[in-house]
Amino acid sequence: MTTAELKKTANEIRKDIIKATHAAKSGHPGGSLSAADMFTYLYFVEMNIDPKNPKDENRDRFVLSKGHVAPGYYSALAERGYFPKEDLLTLRHIDSYLQGHPDMKKIPGVDMSSGSLGQGISAAVGMALAAKLKNKDYRTYTLLGDGEIQEGQVWEAAMFAGARKLDNLVVIVDNNGLQIDGNIEDVCSPYPIGEKFAAFNFNVVEINGHDFDQIADALKQARECKGKPTAIIMKTIKGKGVSFMENQASWHGTAPNDEQCEQALKDLEKVGE
Questions:
Q1: What is the SS3 assignment for 93?
Q2: Hey, where are the domains in the chain?
Q3: Is 0.85 surpassed by the pTM of this model?
Q4: How far is CA 251 from CA 39, 52, 149, 178, 230, in A?
Q5: Which coenzyme or cofactor does it need (predicted)?
Q6: How many CB atoms are located within 10 Å of the residue 266 CB?
Q7: Residue 84 DSSP label
């Protein structure tokens, strides 16, 4: 895909995040919007996957460690063809398979159920280790929130991944600087993030998470790095693309009402132009 096509796809994913959370009257738009560009690149360029065969044992794996940004994850999966886009409007509804957090037993394309913060990276490390033990070539990617890395389990998993030289693992941190309680520095600062992962024997790449060239280069570096897992620390804007949501912690877990939904979609139409 060209950069223009990637931007267009990411914008469609952002529109669906707004529509889905609006229809649900709940959910997490802020961090979904900040991660939309990375979701787009992973699912449309980087990962070896096939929506027609979501359980292929040789597929690359993805674990959404920050499971609450399911609206972004589901929108990417739907855009890629794993299930109908209209189903996104059933997000969080009773009897919908699109629950508030990803469920691997019900949603095509979901490799791991997640939502309890800190646990996703541990599952991803296990998948990467399994590939090594079975001499399989598949790679494992996991997306964490910068607030999520305040969890101790994250660092236990990182220590293990570095010690086992899991160079088939890519840990991506969505560093949008905000969590539900406010600025991550004020709550419990995880900085310097890159240096922490480097101390656990990770290859560390720091990028602008909204720049597709930088995303592509970082993932290329991850593929070429041998003997170390890679951590991509991506600086992003929470609520990216929607004027009144950008850099506002209040939009971490708040759904837009009718007027806000209309305004958000207008903002994204302008971006699309």
A1: coil
A2: 3-272
A3: yes
A4: 19, 34, 20, 10, 30
A5: thiamine diphosphate
A6: 11
A7: -
Mean pLDDT of the chain: 97
Q: Is the pLDDT of residue 273 over 90?
A: no
Residue 272 has pLDDT above 90, yes or no: no
Contact 185, 154 (CB under 8 A): no
| Phi (first) and psi of residue 91, to 5 degrees | -45, 130
Q: Which fold is adopted by the domain 3-272?
A: Rossmann fold (3.40.50)
Please give the structure tokens belonging to residue 51. Answer: 């929506």
Which pairing describes strands 61-64 and 140-145: parallel, antiparallel, or unpaired? parallel
Mean pLDDT along residues 184-191: 97
Q: How many residues does the chain have?
A: 273
Residue partners of 130: CB distance under 8 A and separation at least 6: 136
Tell me: the pLDDT tens digits for 83-95?
A: 999 999 999 999 9
- Please say whether the beta carbons of 120 and 110 come within 8 A: no
pLDDT of res. 271? 87
Cα 27 to Cα 179: distance, rounded to the nearest angstrom: 14
24-49: burial string, b at 16+ Cβ within 10 Å, e else: beebbbbbbbbbbbbbbbbbbebbeb
For range 117-133, the mean pLDDT: 98
pLDDT of the residue at 126:
98
Amino acid at residue number 8: K
Task: Provide the pairing of β-strand 178-179 with 203-208.
Answer: unpaired
